[in-house]
Write a structure and sequence with these properties.
Helices cover 59% and strands 2% of the residues. By secondary structure, the protein is an all-alpha fold.
Length: 241
């Protein structure tokens, strides 16, 4: 396949990015050998050190198997790669070449959020339950400004996930908030049906404050799946306050 020669700055990053996209998009199939370092260096118009660095990073992410003295072969990223594949892209502002990734991220967010809400209702102490109530009222006061509500929504969910007592959920939440699932920015308008449902957020907070885990999970599910089933609501229109 043809590669695009890269600028002299951060050449290893450019080589890494093009090879990563070729692997993730399926242009290189699992177990297919990559060209040798010399051939890749010529194709990218870079030195072999940049190619070697890019291959090392791809191997660490579970995209390649590098054999000393043998061919470098592509691994099936759906089997071998983890969230660190997405995390590696945060600083560069790059995104994975997967068409459904925004939907996939929202679905993952819903799964984590629903169980985090249930656990928060069951495990959180009185102080944190009070914080969730206050978070929702601060959030409600910002309606219908979607961008301001989006920021306040993060504060609310950070308290909910923290109250769940689940470290894995907290780390996943941090990655989602940072854009580390590499979907690029999801505009608040994409989540208008969720963000403008102030009544739904109040119900969620009340369920958590009352210790009703099942009710909190159900309300979280309704909120976090709204953007997957409803068209975006035009800015400036409040849904259910």
């Amino acid at each position: 396949m043809a590669f695009v020669p890269v600028p002299r700055s951060s050449v290893a990053d450019h080589v890494f990015g093009q090879l990563r996209d070729a692997i993730v998009s399926g242009r290189y199939r699992p177990d297919e050998p990559l060209p040798g370092e010399r051939e890749l260096a010529a194709a990218f118009a870079v030195n072999r050190h940049a190619v070697r660095e890019a291959l090392r990073r791809l191997q660490q992410l579970g995209l390649l198997r590098v054999s000393q003295g043998g061919a470098t072969r592509v691994l099936d990223w759906r089997v071998h790669a983890g969230l660190d594949l997405a995390l590696s892209l945060v600083q560069s502002g790059d995104v994975l070449p997967v068409d459904t990734l925004v939907r996939d991220m929202l679905e993952m967010r819903a799964c984590v959020g629903v169980d985090a809400a249930r656990l928060c209702a069951e495990r959180a102490d009185a102080e944190l339950r009070g914080s969730v109530i206050r978070d929702v009222e601060a959030y409600a006061a910002l309606a219908p400004d979607l961008h301001a509500m989006d920021k306040a929504n993060i504060v609310l969910w950070r308290d909910i996930v923290d109250g769940s007592g689940n470290t894995a959920y907290l780390l996943a939440f941090n990655s989602l908030v940072a854009g580390a699932v590499a979907v690029g920015e999801v505009p608040p308008e994409r989540r208008a049906a969720e963000l403008l449902d102030v009544t739904g957020h109040r119900r969620l907070a009340e369920a958590i404050a009352d210790g009703r885990g099942d009710a909190a999970a159900a309300q979280a599910h309704a909120l976090l799946t709204a953007s997957l089933t409803s068209p975006a609501t035009p800015p400036g229109r409040e849904c259910r306050a």
